[in-house]
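Title: Comparing notes on inverse folding

I've been comparing how different people in this forum approach sequence design from structure. To keep things fair, I'm posting one structure and asking everyone to reply with a full sequence. Here's the target:
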């Protein structure tokens, strides 16, 4: 019943978009579904499945990423200042051009997902007998879990300052004095998983979250409205949750007192 409802919802989105595209006869809308349909993928069931997988994979993950990001930012005014500086320096030009140069924002998002990965752990089942690179034997049918949350907090990987929210660990200064982003391999940082079944939406996730952060931070401050001294409670479910949601006050940046 619930599955049918989700299917119907997604199918309706596809049908409506098809109708809209037919009526307009040209691609005026630039959303992803329009692009999909206009690039030769017209089979309704196929496109419906794509819509469902993108909604399931892309909604709770990006919202979890942003929830914890704004919490960490509020606790680290120094990082917020750096971030706002970068955002204010960028124009409000085209989406892609704008975010492509936001290295500090990109680094801050990577750093926040290190401490609070939107998918905190992930389990796989061996379809055949296998041996892990360290020699561990894995029998067919065994479930193996990799723990992204724990890996993001391991001193052996991140050093003794692992508990600090420090975007600089993803950056190095180049000769011009500007920051350059230095990524980590996906096996060290499996926030988007690693190997052939890695997240297909990784680039889009960064594009969306960077764009959102820039749009919000340029004009507003996001101030936690939790009781003084209360830290939010992390819930590890399929995606990372903040217990009870994240109550915030939104203040105009120019009218609120600066950090
Ligand atoms: C911060 C945001 C995101 C994070 C942390 C994230 C993380 C992940 C992870 C860990 C997986 C592997 C799941 C598994 O194998 O059990 C995955 C798969 C996937 N993700 Fe994302 N994701 C994000 C955003 C998105 C977005 C925005 C989209 C699409 C618009 C997307 C599309 C997908 C798809 C289609 C898969 C399945 C890939 C496959 O099985 O071959 N993700 N993602």
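Reply #1:
Here's my take.
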């Amino acid at each position: 019943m619930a599955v049918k409802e989700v299917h119907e919802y997604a199918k309706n989105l596809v049908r409506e978009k098809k109708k809209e595209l037919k009526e307009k006869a040209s691609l005026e809308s630039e959303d992803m579904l329009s692009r999909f349909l206009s690039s030769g993928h017209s089979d309704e069931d196929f496109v419906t499945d794509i819509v469902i997988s993108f909604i399931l994979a892309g909604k709770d993950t990006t919202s979890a990423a942003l929830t914890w990001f704004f919490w960490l930012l509020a606790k680290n005014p120094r990082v917020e200042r750096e971030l706002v500086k970068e955002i204010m320096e960028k124009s409000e030009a085209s989406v892609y051009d704008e975010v492509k140069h936001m290295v500090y924002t990109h680094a801050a998002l990577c750093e926040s997902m290190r401490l609070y990965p939107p998918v905190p752990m992930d389990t796989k089942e061996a379809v055949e007998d296998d041996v892990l690179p360290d020699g561990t034997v894995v029998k067919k049918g065994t479930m193996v879990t990799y723990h992204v949350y724990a890996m993001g907090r391991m001193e052996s990987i991140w050093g003794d300052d692992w508990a600090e929210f420090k975007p600089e660990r993803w950056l190095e200064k180049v000769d011009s004095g500007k920051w350059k982003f230095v990524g980590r391999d996906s096996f060290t940082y499996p926030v988007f998983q690693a190997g052939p079944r890695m997240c297909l939406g990784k680039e889009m996730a960064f594009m969306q979250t960077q764009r959102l952060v820039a749009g919000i931070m340029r004009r507003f401050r996001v101030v936690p409205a939790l009781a003084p001294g209360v830290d939010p409670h992390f819930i590890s479910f399929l995606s990372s949750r903040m217990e009870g949601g994240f109550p915030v006050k939104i203040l105009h940046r120019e009218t609120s007192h600066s950090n």
